[in-house]
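Reply to thread "Modeling small-molecule complexes from scratch"

Following up on the discussion above, here's a worked example others can learn from. I took a protein sequence and the SMILES for NAP and predicted the complex. Inputs first:
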Amino acid sequence: METIKIALLGFGTVGSGVYEIIRSHQERLRTLLGKNVEIVGVLINDKTKERHIDKDILVTTDIEQIFEIPDVEVVIEAIVGVEPGFTYLSKAIDKGYHIITANKELFAHKGQQLKQKAADRGVRISYEASVAGGIPIIGTLRQLLQVNSVVQIEAILNGTSNFILSEIRGEEISFEHALQSAQQNGFAEADPSNDIDGHDAFYKIVILFELLFGRQPKWELIRRKGIRNIRLNHIRLAESFGFRIKHVASLSYENGSVEINVEPNVVPEDHPLYSVEGVDNAVVLTGDLIGELKLQGPGAGKLPTGSAIIEDLVNIFNAEKQHRLVKDIDLKAGTANEFQTWFVIGNAVDPFDGLTLFENSINDQGKFVTARLIEATEGQVKQLLNKNSDLVIYPFAGKPSQPIKKAFVSA
Ligand SMILES: NC(=O)c1ccc[n+]([C@@H]2O[C@H](COP(=O)([O-])OP(=O)(O)OC[C@H]3O[C@@H](n4cnc5c(N)ncnc54)[C@H](OP(=O)(O)O)[C@@H]3O)[C@@H](O)[C@H]2O)c1
């Protein structure tokens, strides 16, 4: 029987998961592909680390040795950062190898270039694992896009941030303690900035945009905020209204324009992201025909992410069709003139003339802190912030929220 030979770049959480799955699923892969699947080379960075890799496999720190292995058909990349992955994958495409990557930072920056290069060279490039780990969001979007236009995505794409927000709320602890807990549980790096400042979720929504519209968005028009400044009392105040605060990456398409935001949102109880807790990821997408669809599950981890990579591998050899909806679109920077509902925390005196729908206060260590629901345009919100720099203002997930307005006005 023929053998598909694979080179694996990176042998950390993801790389070692891929290795384990290929070993444990030999029979299944043979049935699916009619061929054996074998890892023949592994690229690593640090030779001194102890690893359990079959002694017949070349393990090296030298990419040229990997490229010298004969008859490799696929390169799976699970390194961190744009380089050296981009250089390695570019060269692998030149050599005619199919490519699979889990590296969202690399793919957000260089995905378009790599896709073009792969198309020119006639090889396949797959990246399911780069967005939401084990959740099959790329495959689902490809399938839907055959007939649907995807008009909205709202997603929790960073499990670390979601875990921290769940911990703050569930355990009634500070952001700093929740971050420590995430680090102790192995959900956050020693330098957590990539997760808690929103970069990771930003890269993932950029990748989804590119899949939908076939081009890079203008990064400077995407609002990116992380969860670093969220305090326990914000979460308690939101709860007093029946809301939760979630870190949401959203993309919405309307009248030829797309808006993308990556930031903490206030989420009401009937919103599909409300119940997504802990390290889970979830993607809620709306297609013009299918309506709303929610996918929820592990956004990271050795086996879920490895599973997404192996699905890509099988699809490459089972001649998956490429589907893409290319539309004429603009990326817009926020809905500056539309009225929306906002959740405003702070005690500033009466800057809310005519805007407040409902307010509530909690006692926070002897001091009363007030939160208000207001109905305002983004321009008005900016003016409020200019006059009252102590205010903290969260947008709501979803569209400008009529049901919320009605519920509170009639309460
Ligand atoms: N962890 C997850 O659950 C997850 C989920 C989805 C996507 N991803 C993405 O998958 C990629 C890998 O993540 P991970 O969690 O597996 O990272 P990791 O555990 O830190 O592993 C990274 C691997 O890359 C190797 N490496 C780093 N720099 C290298 C270089 N210059 N040359 C050769 N090898 C190098 C490391 O080598 P040494 O072992 O020698 O240090 C290590 O084996 C990242 O891009 C990440 O964003 C991760």
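What I'd highlight from this example: Residues 3-126 form a domain with the Rossmann fold fold (CATH 3.40.50.720). The mean pLDDT is 91. Questions welcome below.
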